[in-house]
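Supplementary material to the annual report.
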Amino acid sequence: MNHPDQAALALYAGGDLGFWARWRVERHLAQCEGCGEEVAAFAAAREIVTDLAEIPDVSWNHLAAEMKANIRLGLAAGECVRMEKPLRDHPWFTGVRTVVALASIITLAVTGLVMEPHSRPHPIAQMDGHTVLQGIQNGIEVEGSGRAFRLMNTGATDVTFSVGAQGSMGARYVDPNTGQVTINNVYAE
Amino acid sequence: MYMRSNRFLQLVAIGLAGVAGLAAQEAPLPRGSVSINFKKDSPVTVVEMSQDSSSATARGAAIVLNLHMGFTLRNDSQSRIHGVMLRVVSQEATAGGKGSVTYPSLNVGPGEVFPVRIEMVLVRPTQAAGGPLAQVDLDGVLYQDLSFYGPDLLHSKRYLTACELEAQRDREYLKRVLAQSGKEGLRQTILQSGARQRQMDAAPLNVRVVRSGPSVTSAALPPEHPEKFAFVRFPDAPVDLVDGSAQISGNEARTPRIDVLNKSGKPVRYFELGWVLSDSSDHQSIAATLPSPERDLYLAPGKSASVLQETTLRLFSKTNQPANVQKMTGFISQVEFTDGKVWVPNRQNLELLGQMVPPSAEEQRLYNVYLKRNIEGLIEELKKF
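Predicted assembly:
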């Protein structure tokens, strides 16, 4: 015996089958108790689902209309604030202002390059929590309580730093003006 | 268009006003801002002094004093001068703060003059007391025969003597290279020296030193453990490193303890240790010189002693990130005997150290001579000594 599939039985239980399909399922149910029980189970489940479906009514059409109105409002607002000319044609981006903006960017880039050696860490010796010995841009310093004493090696390249564990820092370089090897040392004692 | 031009002019005017405002805060320093104190019997005298471009700039509640001092000094002695150390003191700037400016590798005959330059910046509160801003004294002069003049308050005798011995060692080495390998050999050697200098400048690690006691970051670091030094021993060193360790925790190496043995026949009053730290990538950094205590050391021949320094070294990468200490290497870099004689490592010893130490001050000077005057200029310079 060929049994109808589960989908056909479920549709039959809900009264959703077409004329010829319903006739075939009814003929089969008349001879098959198992499929009859399946249909009864689908019908019972359908009643439970109907009970669950009893939630406050939502007006989907009203909701959709409200959403459409909001979208239109947003588009209208966008039209109001949109500039008539493209941004690149705005006077802010022409003439002197463009030059000033470019000059600022170039200045920033050049400053960054000039200041770059600052980022290079030098040996630092900290003394008793107050006085600090450290390598700085173009020199070494002993600093504490808002006062500082620095010996500079301005203009020198290839500077060799040294640290004395008892509290000193040195910078050795060839002085570009005199051509002499010069060794600066600062002490915190 | 007219409006745009107007706005541009306004911008220029604002800029000029700002520059004028800044310039108004800067003022030249009066004469007498720097006091030069050379004693009457000093072998060097100041022939000329200039501080023309020195200035004072107000910056908030502080005043920044830029001192650009140029001196012409004359050798008034009967001997050739090979080194000078000037002591620069400014009690005004920082309590106890002082500095020195040293000129090693000089070769100044009697009656000859030589230029020196001191660039100094002092930052102090505006309402500080008057008087000289800085005082420049002569701490020491070293002659060709290693005799010395000066009050030696900053141990300039030992410092200048060590520099001179290194200079003599390196000049002799370069002369030997020239004799054995010719100009091309000398050129290659001095270029290698320059390359080593640049390599040291570009070292991937940096060290910070904190004096006394555990550092404030210790709580965030893993528990410390003792780590032994690996020593580079020099056969001819008068002092041998016997044992040594330090407490290691993360990127910190703390409280090094070194046991040394005086294997020479003379008592030792000072020695200096080169202390090199390596990270887990085996990057090395010449960390610090670790001097023996100035006052307490007297190391008799055949005797050993322990030296403890209350010092913490912290290792950082070039990007300022903590780098874990993996290995410590130590070597003797200087010894001074009680008779004032000084020992420094020889060229064979330096080869054992490889790339750990920078070229000497004299090598740095001679490399600069080569860059300016080529190989002929370098040979001519070597012949002067």
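The radius of gyration of chain B is 25 Å.
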